Here is the input.
Amino acid sequence: MNLWETMTGSDLTRDWKAFEARADALPPAFRSAWGEITVHLLAYGSFTGRNLMPILDGVLGLLEETAADGQGIDDMLGDDIAGFCAALAGGEGARSYRDRWREQLNRTVAKKLSRLGG
Here is the structure.
């Protein structure tokens, strides 16, 4: 990866297209689970989402292996896809982008209020 790819995000686009091509080869139930997993994991991403690429690659590999072994999607994920994604992202207390933005907003407001009051 060079500087230009990092700045433009073209490496992420290329990786995402590769993920989607791999996901299209999965059975329908696994493709549906892949869609739900990506939606749940995106909340834990950084601004660019670059931190999620290794996690998504691992999850897609696990889906491919499970499908190749002839197991069902419920054998792998169970009933709680959101909990599965939270565990992948760093546990139940993992901070999402909403949490980070909320903390930043609270710090900014507190700083502004301290200037007005002092």
In short: Helices lie at 3-8, 10-24, 28-42, 53-68, 73-77, 81-89, 97-117. Residues 3-117 form a domain with the c-terminal domain of poly(a) binding protein fold (CATH 1.10.1900.10). The mean pLDDT is 84.
